[in-house]
Amino acid sequence: MNWLRPPPDPREVGLEPDYRFTLANERTFLAWIRTALALAAGGLAVIGIIDDLYGREILGLMLLALSFVTAASSFRRWVANERSMRLGEPLPASLLPRILAIGTAVFGVAAAVLFAIGEM
Q: CA nearest 30: which of 78, 82, 85?
């Protein structure tokens, strides 16, 4: 259950990097947060606004889950990148783009299948 604990503050290690890199890392983090917010809004919209879609609860919950994973992973990614920059190490690889791409593809397939089932 170590992944439930927030990572330690990366600003407590190493040397202060060039502020431009820190700001770029922060902008990337905020872009991931915007993505998570858009996924959450989409999930809530599917559940709350669309009435005649078969399986809308499943689709909405899928988007909300993907939103949670994106938001939580983006913070861990920000911490890992900031720590690596401060220690002069290469930036760590991230699974976040892969998770988001697979999650979006799974959502699209699930939406198509549920739409087809609802039309029967």
A: 78
Domain tally for the chain? 1
The CA angle 26-71-32, to the nearest 5 degrees, is: 45
The rounded distance, in Å, linking the Cα atoms of 66 and 107 is: 9
Domain-located, residue 2: no
pLDDT tens digits, one per residue of 99-108: 999 999 999 9
> Quick check: is 3 in a domain?
no
Tokens of 97: 């783009």
- The parent domain of residue 114 ranges over 17-119
4: in domain: no
pLDDT of res. 110: 92
Report yes or no on 7 lying in a domain.
no
Q: Which two tokens stand for residue 102?
A: 């697979």
| pLDDT tens sequence across 44-85 | 999 998 888 888 999 999 999 999 999 999 999 999 999 999
Q: What is the model's pTM?
A: 0.82
